[in-house]
Design a protein that fits this description.
The protein has 387 residues and is α+β, with helices and mostly antiparallel strands. The protein is built from eleven helices and 21 strands. Strand 7 and strand 8 (92-98) form a beta hairpin. Helix 5 (191-199) packs across helix 11, helix 6 runs parallel beside helix 8 (246-261) and helix 8 (246-261) crosses helix 9 (315-329).
Length: 387
């Protein structure tokens, strides 16, 4: 049988909104009202990349195939690759599958010099799962965390019903490309997913690569979202883009927190997480520049450390400032907590697990970050544990 895109919507977890396009069902991690308030095309691009989004259902099927339409964003002569789908059966990783590339999906290629974008459109991708063993099983199909994916349909030889996430703590996390999962090889390898699975909580991942900018529309999105606990990992995108000075950063953080605290999340446990260790930005402000090498991109900081005295931001300044903000607010907001990002990934960790591009922790490093976050924040006695 062929299950339509419309019938897949009740099976979808991790998205805040979905849209029916001419191809199928498109999950969004930011609602349309928020996306309309930014002129940066990067907001829409990363909001459509379904990090943490997955189909969750129960079935007695032995044969399943997911039909999708991927959209690949490429620069220059970059070679396209098949995005990875993780399949979990009864909570265990069952298969990792790549979508075909040749003649499949939409490819948007931008010229690195002119910025001009050309687009080609191919057919849909068919992601066939290995044959399932007899009996009823809980199946999760995690969509690629780094590629826009429209769901066209699901082929199944038996009925599927939503597995549901009732009774699980709903954790909403907002962060940068590290939370989004850049430099990670597969969707269940991103640190928020690893941490959520370890703690048995239901994740909504608002890790938005390059877009953790304290935008008011993001704060309003979090304010309106369903969540039992919330974490915010902030700061590194601000230094990456050199978008604020200390004078504007402090009230922007206060305003972001004030907005979230309006309405239903006035007393929701909220954890503010400062940046992980990143050697190129610890004492030197941004902005960053990217150099394309044969081995891949490599980032470096263009700022001057002497400018910190005039208000420019480094990761060390941001960590100290975020700690002070939480300390000042906790007298009136005891459910607000602070976690130093160096507890998750510090200088010794970066020395042991260097970031390939000097900015994004890889899959092994994200596993370490996730384990520590689950043990500190989501474990019994932690600020985000509701037991």
């Amino acid at each position: 049988m062929r299950i339509s895109a419309g019938a897949l919507a009740p099976l979808l977890l991790g998205a805040l909104e979905h849209e029916f396009t001419d191809r199928g069902l498109l999950p969004w991690r930011l609602p349309a009202a928020a996306r309309r308030q930014s002129t940066d095309p990067g907001v829409e691009r990363v909001a459509a990349e379904p990090s943490g989004v997955h189909l969750d259902f129960r079935t007695e099927a032995s044969r399943l195939a997911l039909i999708t339409h991927p959209t690949r964003e490429l620069t220059g002569d970059e070679t396209p690759h098949g995005a990875v789908y993780d399949v979990l059966v009864d909570g265990e990783l069952y298969a990792q599958l790549s979508s075909p590339v040749q003649g499949v999906g939409t490819t948007r290629r931008s010229d690195p010099i002119t910025g001009e974008v050309s687009s080609t459109r191919g057919g849909d991708a068919r992601i066939e799962l290995p044959r399932l063993p007899p009996g009823a099983h809980d199946v999760q199909i995690w969509l690629p965390h780094d590629e826009r994916t429209e769901l066209v349909g699901l082929e199944s030889d038996a009925a599927v019903i939503p597995a549901g996430a009732e009774g699980r703590t709903r954790w909403l996390h907002h962060g940068s490309s590290i939370s989004h999962g850049f430099a990670v090889s597969h969707p269940t390898g991103t640190w928020p997913v690893v941490a959520a699975r370890a703690a048995g909580v239901q994740l909504t991942n608002l890790g938005l690569a390059g877009q953790a900018m304290l935008d008011p529309f993001t704060a309003r999105t979090i304010r309106s979202a369903q969540a039992d606990v919330i974490s915010l990992k902030l700061g590194i995108n601000i230094t990456n883009g050199d978008t604020m000075r200390l004078r504007t950063f402090i009230p922007a953080v206060h305003g972001f927190l004030d907005t979230i605290r309006e309405g239903p999340h006035a007393e929701t446990p909220l954890l503010l997480v400062s940046p992980l260790h990143c050697a190129i930005q610890e004492t030197r402000p941004g902005p960053l520049q990217m150099e394309l090498l044969e081995s891949g991109p490599r980032f470096s900081s263009m700022g001057d450390s002497r400018e910190v005295a005039s208000g420019k931001l480094t990761l060390q300044v941001i960590r100290r400032t975020m700690r002070e903000i939480v300390q000042a607010r906790r007298t009136e907001d005891p459910q607000l907590h602070f976690l130093d990002g160096l507890e998750l990934f510090g200088e010794p960790d970066e020395a042991e697990l260097p970031m390939p591009d000097q900015l994004h922790p890889d899959t092994a490093a994200q596993q370490r970050i996730a384990t520590r976050f689950a043990n500190v924040a989501l474990a019994p006695g932690g600020p985000l544990n509701l037991e």
